[in-house]
Target: Methyltransferase
Amino acid sequence: MSQITTETATEIESTGTERRRRSGGRGGERTRKPAGGDRYRRLVNRLARTEVLDAEALEHIHDASLTVLEEVGMDIMLPEARARMKAAGADVKEGSDRVRFDRGLILDMIASVPSQFTLHARNPERNLAIGGNNLVFAQIASAPFVADREGGRRAGNQEDYRKLVKLAQCYDIVHCTGGYPVEPVDIHASIRHLDCLADLVLLTDKVFHCYSLGRQRNLDALEIVRIGRGISAEQLEAEPSLFTVINSSSPLRLDGPMLQGIIEMSSRNQVVIMTPFTLAGAMAPVTVAGALVQQNAEALCGIAFSQMVRRGAPVMYGGFTSNVDMKTGAPAFGTPEYMKAVMAGGQLARRYGIPYRTSNTNAANTLDAQAAYESMMSLWALTQGGGNFVLHAAGWTEGGLTASFEKFILDVDMLQMVAEFLTPLDVSPDALALDAIREVGPGGHYFGTGHTLARYESAFYAPILSDWRNFETWTEAGRPTTYDHANRIFKEKLASYERPPIDPAIEEELSTFVARRKQEGGVPTDF
Amino acid sequence: MSQITTETATEIESTGTERRRRSGGRGGERTRKPAGGDRYRRLVNRLARTEVLDAEALEHIHDASLTVLEEVGMDIMLPEARARMKAAGADVKEGSDRVRFDRGLILDMIASVPSQFTLHARNPERNLAIGGNNLVFAQIASAPFVADREGGRRAGNQEDYRKLVKLAQCYDIVHCTGGYPVEPVDIHASIRHLDCLADLVLLTDKVFHCYSLGRQRNLDALEIVRIGRGISAEQLEAEPSLFTVINSSSPLRLDGPMLQGIIEMSSRNQVVIMTPFTLAGAMAPVTVAGALVQQNAEALCGIAFSQMVRRGAPVMYGGFTSNVDMKTGAPAFGTPEYMKAVMAGGQLARRYGIPYRTSNTNAANTLDAQAAYESMMSLWALTQGGGNFVLHAAGWTEGGLTASFEKFILDVDMLQMVAEFLTPLDVSPDALALDAIREVGPGGHYFGTGHTLARYESAFYAPILSDWRNFETWTEAGRPTTYDHANRIFKEKLASYERPPIDPAIEEELSTFVARRKQEGGVPTDF
Model:
């Protein structure tokens, strides 16, 4: 199973950004020699991608999206952004938010996006290789509610926020956090980002995200990540270490804080994930192809803008196209339509050579079969579709409204199974087992052979949740379901959590910064 | 969505067997003009297959399996079979069951297997195109137990047997039955096959299976299928209309009744599905590659024997390699190892140009998340791995020990989602929706547009089970799980069951035959 680690170390070494900038440094060194026990820290997907669009169909969607940007344009809700777009050559009308983009301008701009880069964590062994064949899983982000079986579904709060962040630290398959797993509304919005980002530094040693909710929050996050890594502002600018998700307000609009986020993050060479939220039948056309046209127009617009801000800034192409339940208007996830959109999105992202962000989605209200099959369909689509960065990979349920502790465990198990699936099949002479077959012969049994005894302990993936006891034994045990097992396991895992080591000087500097910024009132709010 | 139907009709027309024998006749005509409302009757998988083995690794497994057949050989537990093998050129030792096969003999024999053929049902609209890009789903077979929520888990019986067969008739996505969905042990074994096969003719109009449990049972089944189709023995021999699953007794042994089954079925041009049951670590080497070597040796031996019986007889390559839980020895299904074995098996079957049989498996004891994720992993593997015929596609749970009514419904929903996923994405100008995007513009909404209104009723797959109500509405409804919905739906569906029409003369002939054979005592048993 060590192939995963070895291969990805190579991937990291060969990423474009690394080569271009020669900034691998400390991080680069360490990722080449990963410590033991980190079987899931680096995943490489060497399988051929599944293509749901033929070459002609792909070009139809590409062309149509460029026509949208040329003829319809986007509403760009920030004067500074419109000014930058005008300077780059876009068609900006005075007194209007509407901006139109020549296709040549878009294609020129997106050509400078790096196809691969490294996202740096405060622990270099947690650095992430983004793009190419690399596959990274990020925890759920931004749920307003949190749930476990005993506590039920409740509003997000700091205690649950911290528990979920700790769980993300516990599993190597969760490569990074992805925003606040749940929104802790018991912390005032003016200082919430300070407490939450400090927790992400202290409770984990993995890469994290900052919300683009106004310039000051971006700046605070940039300073916190700089302190956390113990580096200079110059080194931070050379080494992308923070990411932000930018959503367009579909259809065809980019709001002020989002545009500001691109400006602050891209200008400092930090990572922007440009993700339109194009629900077919609601904020996008009711056809999957039409929704993809709109997704692509919005994504390319935001990505092009990141390059207007700074050529070569790291950015990802985000796909989030799904459909709505046409009976109720409720968003649906993990559907056949979602699968096709994920795979087609991957084809578009690869056409442009831009790393591809996807999601592990479902719309279940509890941890039942639906939660599993919708998530598994999402995982199937994004694995075969070539997702590079999977947000909401662990813990997402109820269409993203709820962060579930039990679903987090279910997802960890499913993600680990994806990772095992991606591990190349060993066909060495020893694995072909001709001698064992000769030894056992017709009518024999393999349980006691030397070939089996030498391998049985690590031969197969041992699931966290699957209950493979026979019916009688399972009945004696009280007939536990996956939900029961997940409920037990998340509590056991939390009890085993250990805070990752940190330089006391860094912790002190972080504490001082957060205290000062809180004294200053954080970020003013109108409530 | 009509592409599925149209494309598969073409597939049926272009199958090798059809061309070779020019026997399309009645069946061929009708399948070209499928009736309305049969969206799921024919599935075609036009996606590129996922390959987990590179060309070299595939040859390693191929070579090793031929070495096994040459050097180790198989135990062939029927004198008549050994005599036929000897006549064909195999190395048969007097006074021993062991038979060894030169690789040239094996490769020569399997070269005459048809790569595609049609399996004929008594209703020609239910004919099945086997092989190529065609994908066929068969119901669960051979479970000793049956379960639903109210009745719990109980021994198989005729009432439940009939209910499950009726359910298979109710859904077009279940293309055929696959043996007895549950073993009705309340019917004496001497006449069980007569009652059960008559039910398969009367309660469904789909293709069915016969067990190879001695020559007489095969002969009774052949007569029942001939009567059911209302054709002559000659036409039956020209049109494969019955299939049997032949399991090797792994490792490397074929028992008497199984060999007899190949002889009776292949000699009459009926379909043999040759499926080794190679659990890695138990009846096969503990490595997936080693288990595949053994699977391939056993499968090729049985397939080659079918061609020794009759050149060109239709046969499928069955893959059923999984692993055991090394802590308990319990079989595991729907695992990452199972997925790789399914995909590698598909590569082997395609290398030989033989239709590929797979299964929709899981080892869950109830309808929880595990049942869904293990099944979905199986479906992912067999879809991307190029399965042509999927046994146990609906209703299988607990590692095949139990036929579950609720799991049947869950599987129907998941199979339909696979079918929808395989439907090509529409990228016509109308689907690209440029005019709708122009009309709505930035900041608008698509709910009320003409483009949406014209399509919303059929735009997306409407799942049977997924509960997409919001949390509050779902809570008011009593928080039903997937299990609850499936329990309700199977009862509703059973209540709506209608017996398919049948010629009264055929029904009369069938009844007379079964009565006569019962009077004769059926097939003698020693109990």
About this structure: The first strand of chain B starts at residue 43 and ends at 44. Chain B touches chain A through 123 residues (CB under 8 Å).
